Each structure stands twice: as structure tokens, then as C-alpha cells.
# Entry
Amino acid sequence: MEYFVQQLINGLTLGSIYGLIAIGYTMVYGIIGMINFAHGDIFMVGSFIALALIVAIGLTAASSTGFIILALLIVLIISMVFTAAWGWTVERLAYRPLRGSFRLAPLITAIGMSIVLQNFVQVTQGARVKPLQPIISGGVTLMEGVTENGPIVVQLSYMQMLIIALTTALMIGFTLLINKTSLGRAQRSCEQDQKMAALLGVNVDRTISLTFVMGAALAAVAGLMFLLLYGVIDFYIGFLAGVKAFTAAVLGGIGSLPGAMLGGLLIGLIEVFWSGYFTVEYKDVAAFSILAIVLIFLPSGLLGKPEVEKV
Amino acid sequence: MVHQPTETTTPEGAQRLDEERAAAPEIVPAKDPNSMAESLKDAFMAALLAGVLGFFFLGLRTDIAPGGLVMTTRWGLFITAVLIVFAGRLALNIFVFKTHKPVTRTVAAAASDNTRSLERVAWWLKRILFAFALVLPFFFTYFFPQRDRQFIDLAILIMTYIMLGWGLNIVVGLAGLLDLGYVAFYAVGAYSFALLAEHFGLGFWMALPLAGILAAFWGMILGFPVLRLRGDYLAIVTLAFGEIIRVVLLNWYQFTGGPDGISGIPKPTLFGLEFKRGAGGFADFFGIAYDPIQRFIYLYYIIFILAIITNLVTMRMRKMPIGRAWEALREDEIACRSLGINTTNTKLTAFALGAMFGGFAGSFFATRQGFISPESFTFLESAIILAIVVLGGLGSQIGVVIASVAMIGGIELLRNLGFLQHVFGAGFDPTQYRMLIFGLAMVGIMVWKPRGLVSTRDPSAVLKEKKKIGADMVAQGEGH
# Structure
């Protein structure tokens, strides 16, 4: 039981990160119907920017609590802004010129962009992994128990609390942004009918750019969380995280924001429970299999609308 | 007779409008978007963006040091990069984007004038390339005796990619099914041969057809569930399958050797003659002096013939009903189905045939290397093969050749250019930038020429006369 609760907490934490990345996939797919294959690498870029900032500020676990909170807030905002610039540039260079081209063209440039980002970071920052000393340590003990393998303690670390709280706050803010502001309205209208939206005075290009900017900013948050949680990043983390987040987006129903979050949490839980109860080696196979199974048998996902085929 | 407005017929409202127009402030002409000032402003913005993007990557670098991470600054590199972006953007603005007479248009006009002659060039190019490929090993051994081994090795590598490109072209270019997991079949072919050799002692020529059949079988197994999917969903699922196969190869230690891979894979023999020194070898049998290069020449001809077979089969298939069905499927799946084409069989044959050639190439890879491990079959390899097909122009056979030579050969060429080391310093290793250049080329060519380098297609069915058609006329790779 204790083991289960601990895994549940770990799964929810990991799922929050996947969910935040998945939002970027789902929004882009919803609005222009393409898989932004480079989004996982935007997440990686975000975590590298956060790493550089943390090292530059000189943030360590020894710093005072107030300083840590203030510094992390600064790191979060700056890395969101800079990562958003990357997201905007990727869209402007690789996707916008191909709008109206054949359907697979942007997917191919997206794969190209993903290769470019990975190798750019590898060349400029080195191929070796970057370990970061844990900054936020400690936590609250929720349960204590004894199993046949000895005592077990269920702990909710401050880091996990931070991740879950931040994700919840961002989700609320984001839902309000989509549902209440004029930008959100423009986005929803572009999602339904780009031509009609343009006729009614919505700047479609700008709305699409802003979608990428928002997705990238959320990916930056996920990047910072990933860095703080695992403490190790390299130029290749974007690929796996990206595929899993995409799986999450598809599982939740692509184009649906709550679906992306739900899918992220589910994928996080599945991955953690799979590693906890079966084998660690095949945890990626689990994620990939879910992707294939969902796409084949449930292509509209849990919360998505089924696609209607028009001739 | 046309009614002309006069003083008396012009309505009062129109007169008032004229007066208002006269009283209105003079219209200021809009700023000329092609002016130098605009170009400079735009270039400045581009440089600013480059500064923002590059700050944390070019300007700063974190490295592992005792006691944690340390940061080094590289302002020289950062400022150089920003200046290069500024200068590049400015040059582009002046000559291409913000001018009434873009250079590109002049070039394009010049090129379109002699499309006919270009066709002739292409016709000759194919034959010249083929003739050159036929005599290539002897060309290098004769003219570059010191470096022949290196050149022939490179030619073998390029030829392998040409074969893989042609194999993938069946799936992506002809049938329009974007397959991101093609490397899985390459891996199946390589592991089939390695395991057959290890456990049953089969030689290359015995194992080759088996490896092809096994790969084709896997092509059908993986193709079957994705029959209903199209476009990017199909692409992602094939990627997932490719990764699953790789992870299984990596973790099934008892069967595949896991990350250690399989070594000691036998070399190919010529009707039982081994390429070795001493009695019973190839050189001994024919009474010529032994030279290790003979084995490389033999390997080259194996992959050359395999690649030519791939090409011939594809070209013949295009003329057969199944090939026509592939192309029809690429254009419109719904129309296909309503005309009674069995889309299931059509798709599965495309997957199986493409996979079979991937499997052949895989066994060749295993025999050439003598060692295989899952590391050789990552997603990146799939991406490279796809890049070659895409850059050459989806569905174009000669395009694949040009793209392979340019991408694989071009990068190797960079490694041998001594002056680059003088420019960038002694530690400069171009292979480090290989994938970066690959990715940039993939994006750049796709944006510039979405139909690939070779953007004309031969129609497979013609009325009276064969005409070249622009690739924009075919719904290339729509995936449905």
C-alpha cells in the first residue's frame, strides 16, 4: 500500500511534466493539424537555458529559502521568455513558409528542426550529460509502514509539491487564457476555420505564432521542472520526453487541453507503475506501445472529438 | 452608347465627395518596403533575434568541473555569430527579399529557359553516373592507389544509403506512406543474418534471401495494424515500432547480446572462395597477388548489384498493376477504394517490398561491419534515410542518388579539407557538424523546394507521348 502511494505521487509528478509538454503538441495540432516534432527539443532547449541561468546565478541548496524562491522565479520567467523566442523562430523558419504545401512537408521540416536543435545544443554545449546538484531537498512524510523488505516511508518532497502546485496554477491560468481572453477566442476560431477567422479580422499568422510561443513557454516550465527533479540533462532528453508527451496528447484526445493534461498524468502513472511493478528496461516500450494502440484503436483519444472524413 | 456623367447628371452626393477629396490632406506615399533603411532595420531585427537565441548557447557554456558545474563565456563566438546573421540577412534583403529584381528570379528564369536541355542533361547524367559506378573501384585503385581503400569504403557507404533510399522510396515516394521506422527493417535484416550465422553457420549468400524474407515478414506484421492510419499518425506509429524493435534488441540480452551486440559475423565469399591470404583464397585460386583491397572491391560490387536490383524492381513495379495501384493510393485513397483497388494488399505489398530491400541492405551492413549493435539502428538513421529520399525528391530515383552522394559524400569530403582546420582551429572536426548540416539542409531544401531537388516526375502511364510533369502536379506523400 505504501509503495503504491509513493508510486502514485511519483507518477503524478512525472505526469505533470508530460502534461505541460503535451499542451504544446495538442494546441499546435488543434490549430494547424501538424505534429510539431521539434517540440520535445524545445523542452530540451528550455531546460538547458534554465541550467545556464541556475549556474550563472550560483543557486545551490545552501542558499536561503527566500533566495531560492526568488531566484527560481527569475529563472522560470527568463527561461520561458527565451524558450518562447526559440518556439517562435522554429515556427517562422520551418513551418510558416510551408503553410499550404502538401501535408507531410511541415512534418519533414519538423524532423529536420528537431535534428538541428539537438545537434546545435550538442555542438555548443557538449555531448556529455550535465549533472546539477539538488537545490530543493527535503519533504513531508505522509505514511510509514513495514513491508517484508523492511520499513517504507511515503514521502512527498517539496520538489514534488512545487511541481504539482505550479502545474495546477499554470493549467488554471491557461484555461482562463483560452476561454476568457480575445487571444484565446482568436485561437479557438482559427482552430475551427482559419479562412473564416481571417475574413472576420483575426490575424491568423499572428495567432499561430502565439500558439507556438505559448507552447514553448510551457515546455520551458516543464524543462525547468525536469532539471530540478532529475538533476541530469543532456541534448537528447527531448526525443523521449517529446514522444511520450505526444502519446499523452493523443491519449487525451488531440486538440483538447484538459485531455492533454489528463493524458500526461496517465502516461506518467503508467510509466512509473510499469517500472515499479514490472521491468525498468521496457518502460519506453510501454509508452510506445500505448501510442500505437491508442492511435490504432482510439484515434480520437479519451476527450477528443472524432474526426469526420469529407470527400 | 456609354452613358457619360456630366455636370448635370452627376448626383449631388458625388459632387460632395469630390469636394471632400479635394479638401482631404495629401496622401503620404507609403514607405518603400524595398528601401535600404528597411533592409537594415530587418537585418537588425534578425541579428537581435539571433542574439536572444544564441545567448545561452553560444555566449555561455556550462561544463562539468570538480565540485559542480562551471560556466565559461565565449563572447567572441557569440558576437561573431550575431554579426554573421546581420550580414547574411542584409545581403539576402538587398539581393532577394527587399528588391524589385531578386537575383533568384533571374536565376530561375535562366534555368526555366532551358528545361529541355536540362532533361537531356539528366538523361546523360543517369548514364554517366551508372557507367562511373560500374568502374568505380578500378578508377580509384588506378588513379588513387594510396587512398583507394578509403574511397571505396566511402563508395560502399554511399551505395548502401542509395539502396536504403530506393527501398524507402517505394513506401514513401510511390505508395505515399510516411515511414519513420524504416531502420527497424534494416535492423531485422542485420540481426537475421548475424543470428543465422551465429547459430546455424549460414554464410552471407544463404542468409541474404532469408534476411530479406524475414524483413518483409516484419514489414507486413508492422504494416498490418497501421493500415487504417494515414499521414502523420502513420508516421508516428511507425516511429514507435522502430523504437520498440530497437529497445527490444537492446534489452533481450540472451538472444541479441544486448548493448554488446554480435561480433564475428562472417565475410561474404565468392562461390566459396574467401578473400584471405594464402591457399584456398580468392587471390590464390586466380593466381594473382593478394591485396586486401580485393575484398573491398567485392563488397562494393555486392552492394552495387543489390542497389541496381532494388532500382530495377521498383521501375518494373511501377509499370505493373501493383505499382499503378501504389501511385493511385498516394493520390487518393478514397477514390482507390471506390474503384475496387484492394488497399490492404496494396499497402502491405509496399511495406513488405520496402522492408525486404531494407533487410537486404541490413545483412550487407552486418557482413561489411562484422559487428552490429542496437546503436547502429537509432531513429536518427531513419531520419537520415528519410532525409535522403525527401531531399532528392519523393518518388524520384535519380534524386536519391544525388542526395546520397551530396549528403554522405559531401560530409566525408569536409573531413578531408585541410584548410577548414586553419580557419576553425586544429580541434575542428566536421563530422561533429554532420547532423547539424543534415538537419539544416532538410529544413532549407524543404522550404526552398518542397518537392525535392529533382522535382519532375516520369508519368507511369502515358497517352501517345511521354511528357515530363512537374512534381507539384502529383499529391506526393499525402499519405491517403
User: Anything to note?
Assistant: The two ends of chain B are 57 Å apart (CA to CA).
